[in-house]
Amino acid sequence: MEEPKITVGIMSEDEITFVFNGEFILEEDDSEKLTGKHKAKIHDGVVLFQGKQFPKLSFIPQTDNCDFELIGVTIGKSFHWEQKENLKFRGDLIIITENNKLTAINRVAVEEYLASVISSEMSATSAIELLKAHAIISRSWVLAQINKENKSTKDSCALDSETEHIKWYDKEDHINFDVCADDHCQRYQGITRESTDAVKEALKKTCGEVLKYEGEICDARFSKSCGGVSETFENCWEETPHPYLKKVIDNRDELDINAKDLTVEKNARLWILSNPESFCNTTDDKILSQVLVSYDQKTKDFFRWKVEFNTSELSKLIKKKTGIDFGDIQDLIPIERGQSGRIIKLKIAGSKKTLIIGKELEIRKALSESHLYSSAFIVEKEMDKEGRPIKFILTGAGWGHGVGLCQIGAAVMASKGYNYQEILKHYYKNATIEKEY
């Protein structure tokens, strides 16, 4: 297999401004070479560029040292670190119409893509064994998404009834490109996040290597902090168990008597309120700076955390985030928990409506202006004299869905001398490392 190219959706706006550093040719109208600053707009459902209308634009660099800059790209969309940046990319720039907007797509070779992903998802100065491990899981994940698309195995992402709203978010949301550039898929911020010699070495040493299970490339997921126990795939996405994405207790011996069955409410409560020995249970700034880029470092309480709402705040928040008027929120009741204690189904009981929501990301979105750190939380209430709730206190564990590699845990493992094979073996059970190209 030759190194494939992938398409990455970068931004979607009414108009897109871009700068060519070097010479590019417009494939749809190759009468001249283009350099410098340009703008495309949407007009009557097509792309308007230099006074002409096109169904799409495909700009192809003419030399290897060309790149292009997109102006005002939103990164961290809907998260607390959301911001706009100007980002540079190598490869082709494609502009299409989509949902009454223009979408900018970067077509790029996988290894070039990975050089940015590793430097965007974490610090490019991280420990070399951590970078190698992340190169392999990021490569595995993106190739698995392409394979999934080619096999047309997309599942429904929502199950609705009068009593339940169950939704999950995955690659299936993207129709016109392979993956997006933000946290929904993998952070990809082009050559703006400069790769270091360590990143280049990690890619060179692992070039073409992927995780496989029974001959198939693994859908290798990862999150910031598992909180001490990793979650299973099917509890966050479609109901398709992946044998290599199972519950892992995140310490050296993979043992903890208090983490035996976190699907049981009383066990989950004890676990979340505890401070277990775990690889990702660290406050070492040197290690954390490898995984948490500048805007991530605004968050320090990721392993165990607490948020509080008065009833009025919570009721308004849930109405705003779900679009449903529950009235005054009377209770939040965990209905089903996964292997890591993360809530898969949560009952929201209000004075006007009661509904069960899930899966984990839908719960996290409903209970935060951006995203709650994780759905591994317990609910406590303060009541008034009449027995009505006046405050809700959520105490939780971990940051993210918790499936697959725990980035902070892996950083700690690398600092303790574990090599990348040992790190991957810890988080992806029964998977093997094989060379794909």
In short:
By secondary structure, this protein is of the alpha+beta class. The chain has helices spanning 110-121, 128-150, 197-205, 265-272, 285-291, 311-322, 360-366, 407-415, 420-427, and strands at residues 5-13, 15-26, 33-43, 46-49, 52-54, 56-61, 67-75, 83-89, 92-98, 101-109, 158-160, 164-167, 179-180, 209-213, 216-217, 222-223, 304-310, 329-337, 343-350, 354-358, 377-383, 389-397, 405-406, 432-435. β21 and β22 form a beta hairpin.
Structural class label: alpha+beta
- Unreliable spans: none
Helical fraction equals: 10-25%
Distance between the termini: 5 Å
* Total tally of structural domains: 2
Number of strand elements: 24
Helical stretch count? 9
What integer is the average pLDDT? 93
User: How would a textbook summarize the main sheet?
Assistant: 11 strands, mixed
